[in-house]
Amino acid sequence: MKKKTIAIDMDGVLADIEHQLIQHYNKANGTNLSKESIQGLEEEEAFVDRAVVRSVLNADNFFRSLPVMPDAVESVRELQENFEIFIVSAATEFPVSLAEKVAWLGEHFPFIKWENIILCGSKRIINTDYMIDDHCKNLDYCMGKPIMFTAFHNINKTHHLRVNNWKEVVAVLNETL
Amino acid sequence: MKKKTIAIDMDGVLADIEHQLIQHYNKANGTNLSKESIQGLEEEEAFVDRAVVRSVLNADNFFRSLPVMPDAVESVRELQENFEIFIVSAATEFPVSLAEKVAWLGEHFPFIKWENIILCGSKRIINTDYMIDDHCKNLDYCMGKPIMFTAFHNINKTHHLRVNNWKEVVAVLNETL
């Protein structure tokens, strides 16, 4: 039987961008943001100086050096047994991130083939059975079933199925088998 | 009314890869291939030494310096009035090509926004109303209506609607309006 497909986001889902963005933003901007202080804010409210955000995200090695989310590697490997996994990451806004994201996946998720990596802008034309993402701008328009991965900017959103960590992702998806 | 969507391939459709690949391959391999001598052959039959092909495609500046297909710029701009255009290019196999393809589009197609650029591997989860591509491996499994752009390797394939140039693309698509 053909496996069901899952589109998995990178930043905020496979890669822990939050911690590193706070650190780099504070350093560049002289602010004192913390994981706690930005809970429930929209990204633009949390990181007000958008020019600094752009400069941080455009810097060499930012995306290449992101830490992996807890349990992500083993969970994706486990899901791959029963689902076809596609990594679908918004990246074309920051061209320096493109090769870095492929290299990052190669290091941490070497069992994901290049055929299954998609670097995009909008995710509106991605058609998979499930989409795991932290951004409602992607989940609201996705063609399959949306699964919202908890992040500071979505904790007050309630209109998608929520998962708080990778163990919950695996539990939710295995239940569909 | 929501515009219909078109996924447009880059190599062999927007970008004239054939001429440049023949030149670089011949130079690296001491062969004497020509546009005429490879007509009707599969890519692997035309460019037999796959290691040389990989090295050519992995070289800096190969994709960045490809010529634009005749009439492509004006045609895509015209189609954009009535369709939503996505550029969908297989690129993750050659990471060096990723940023180069975005830069190439920025130079030649500055009216395409980053949101509408997709660099992928397999195109199987791309869902647009139309897909313009030269490769049957993409067209055979696409979710929308396939449109085959003529290339040396597909001239004997007859199972998709064929277009020979950009003027024909525009004519075929405008007829659907």
Automatic annotation (TrEMBL), chains A, B:
Active site per the UniProt annotation: 9 (nucleophile), 11 (proton donor)
UniProt record similarity statement: Belongs to the 5'(3')-deoxyribonucleotidase family.
Keywords: Hydrolase
Superkingdom, natural source: Bacteria
Catalytic activity, EC: 3.1.3.-
An annotated Gene Ontology molecular function: 5'-nucleotidase activity
Protein name stated in the entry: 5'(3')-deoxyribonucleotidase
Pfam family for this entry, one: NT5C
Biological-process GO terms, alphabetical: pyrimidine deoxyribonucleotide catabolic process
